[in-house]
Amino acid sequence: MNDWHWLFGDQLGPHFLAPEEGGPARDSKVVMIEARSVFRRRRFHRAKAHLVLSAMRHRAAELGDRVRYVRADTYREGLHEAVGDNPVTVHHPTSRAALGLVRSLEQVRVLPARGFLVPQDAFRVWADEHGGGGRLRQEDFYRWARRALGLLMDGGGPAGGRWNHDHANRERPPRGARTLGAPEPYRPREDDIDAEVRADLARWEREDGIRFVGRDGPRLFPATRREALAALRRFVDHRLAGFGPHEDAVLAADPVMSHSLLSASLNLGLLDPWETVAAAEEAWRAGRAPVNSVEGFVRQVAGWREYVWQLYWYFGEDYRHENTLGHHTALPEWFLELDADAVTARCLATVLAQVRDTGWTHHIPRLMILGSHALQRGWEPRQVTDWFHRCFVDGYDWVMLPNVTGMSQYADGGRMTTKPYTSGGAYIHRMSDLCDGCAYRPGDRAGAQACPFTTGYWSFAHRHRDLLAANQRTARAVQGLDRLGNLDEVLAADRRWDKQTP
What's the pTM? Predict the structure, then answer.
């Protein structure tokens, strides 16, 4: 048999081998390649490296004699060792680098992408009609996608009478609570494959000079289809109902709260996005979850995740070099090393420790603490994007390039979002308990106890006054800046973070 199909390490679910039109032949043999060069190019989080390799090796074990699993230095070498010059099919990879590789190989035929809800051609038509390469909006895409997919619709209108239930999903954390009290999420059990992966990673560090960042173990996210389905059921049956109201809140002792933890499984291809949103919608229709929680989750998967995937390809490779704000400061060593113990600000230290220990935090710590701090300090957006790619278990080039460059760092000047996302300490204090017991005071913008997020916010507004004044969503920040009676003191207080860890 000469028909081979190549599975990348983020194409691990059954839908990547389904013998549908445009898919691999039913009797295709499978090739999987574990390329060591991937880990030489970037210093990944150790837990991420563990998860990806564990998932790949588990999938190979499931496929048995059907798969040829090759461990090689590069993908090219691995493919040649596995199949020689025989023809190979592969579904459209998820990164530009991988797509360029497979297209450069004459023996490889690239099939349409799987693992997403909207065909790329359909998105391009929609985008060209809604602003082209200028300013696109996720809310417009989200409504169009739900109509096109018939997702969470009630007749001809949105379920619950509203497209967007954010008004019900922005509650502060319960007063005095250390945790949200949500049922525990699904957590997998490690096996012999995990032990083998951990031993290999340690050997690579000792013998091959490959370096990782962060801590590894025990594995917290699914590495198999069975585990991923169990995680989905656990979320929908026990956690989805409570997800919505506090999805933007943060508690130091409860980093997971009611979040789904399904992003890693979706981005490995272990889950198909349609089955996740369909399960959530069914919970609403059966009366097991309120519409605001279901809509909030559907928005994350069918709205934001899908939007980010499409923009990654639509904006083109030049998007990677966007830097509208002119931010060029290099990331400091403490941030690169995930050295939470070096940080005094409790919010930043808490979240950085979560990344160090697990390779994960939910979207608000990513955006409003880690990303906001990087934006305020003027860190170079390509370096920030690379850091998020390497340090998060669910981070891939397609995920982080639009998320960080566009939304978090506003480096594209507003092509995908309507404003820069940053705040002073007051927002963090309102939406979390992270300011409790901190050495800094969220309300202080000058003096020894001035909050680095508060000084950073005003310093950012001062540096980019003209841009913010011209945007109706941020003009009030400039008005507030003009009312400050001690701007020079605030700017002086902020400059100290250029020289010392906050």
Answer: 0.96
